[in-house]
Amino acid sequence: MNMRQNFLIRLFCLCLFPVFTMAQNTDNFRQPYPLGTKLPEASAKNFIGQAYIAPITVNRELNVPMSNVTFEPRCRNNWHYHKGGQILVASAGIGYYQEKGKPARRLYPGDIVEIAPDVIHWHGAAPDSWFAHVAVSCNPQTNEAVWLSPVGEKEYQEATSQAENVYAEANRVLEAREQAIVSIAAYTGKGDLAHLRQALVKGLESGMTVNEVNEVLIHAYAYCGFPRSLRAIQTFMQVIEERKSMGIKDVEGREASAIEDGGSRYERGRDILAEISGTSASVPKAGYAVFAPTIERFLKEHLFADLFERDLLTYRERELATVSVLAGVGGVEPMAYGHMSICLHLGITPEQLTALLNIVEINLGKKSSDPLRDVLGQLTDKK
């Protein structure tokens, strides 16, 4: 495909699927509860940055006051404690909670924090993300918040950086390019476009060309579907245009090489799968291959021939991307087992797969990483 054809295809996609992937703000930050209104002045003085509050319970007879609190990036409240304790339920974005004298805890949707009475703490948003949580006031008849000193910029930066980089040294077993591929693929699988933007920039900064990053996003569609793949590509298009407007010219890179093998696509895909998995192509078909032979043919012809034959990514990079996409999708542990087995056969070590899951944990949370840590444990125990 020449550059003119490439440009026309991109233009067509842009026209057919308008791009709505602007940076997060109050209008497009997705959360399950209302944003509410800006904090009243009496409360805002105990916060650095802008926060919003929306009561979500109205029946006072229940004695369980609950409010949705939304923080803009870098917003956090002062050190404080509650005489009656508090429960936080993270509902959207990425945030932090820290008790005095302890490391900060990174929070993801669904995480719960139980704060005992009189425990000094603070909570708020990550530096690069909006964050929302439901705050539950315990023992409301006697509960009272006691506000202390602000969480200064240096203190906040140290706490959040320590939590974000807890695995940095262990993750060095993966090259910077591979780490970028993992983040890009995981966010694409999850459908988290806001954080995908940052991962795409890191991919380019690691030395990946535009076409190589695009290839990760194209590859992802086989595992998370066209809608998420296309939304990720749209996001990447916008990132490229924004960087152009800042005078940054990213290297487009070469196109995938032409396929010269004259064999049938099914046979080529079958042979590639046998090569990367170590399983003979002559093994009798079973399971879904017998029950739904059409999809088995599609897998061989399209996934393992049409996609895996494209040489913009190595087999190793494609499998790292695949496992990362599956982590983002969630609930597909049997498929993750198969692809992590392929990773091991390709020479990717358990330590490198652990690093992959470390990155997934920091980006998406333990709910995305822990099921695949169990899968990796099964595979390594098996050996």
From TrEMBL:
Cite the CDD domains for this sequence. cupin_HNL-like
A Gene Ontology molecular function term for this protein is:
peroxiredoxin activity
Specify the Carboxymuconolactone decarboxylase-like domain's residue ranges. Answer: 158-233, 293-362
Species for this entry: Parabacteroides distasonis CL09T03C24
In terms of Gene3D superfamilies, this protein maps to: AhpD-like (1.20.1290.10), Jelly Rolls (2.60.120.10)
What domain of life does the UniProt record list for this protein's source?
Bacteria
Q: Spell out the InterPro entries in the cross-references.
A: AhpD-like (IPR029032), CMD-like (IPR003779), HNL-like_cupin (IPR047263), RmlC-like_jellyroll (IPR014710), RmlC_Cupin_sf (IPR011051)
**Which UniProt keywords are present, listed alphabetically?**
Signal
For this entry, the protein name equals Carboxymuconolactone decarboxylase-like domain-containing protein
List the coiled-coil residues: none
Per the UniProt entry, the signal peptide is 1-23
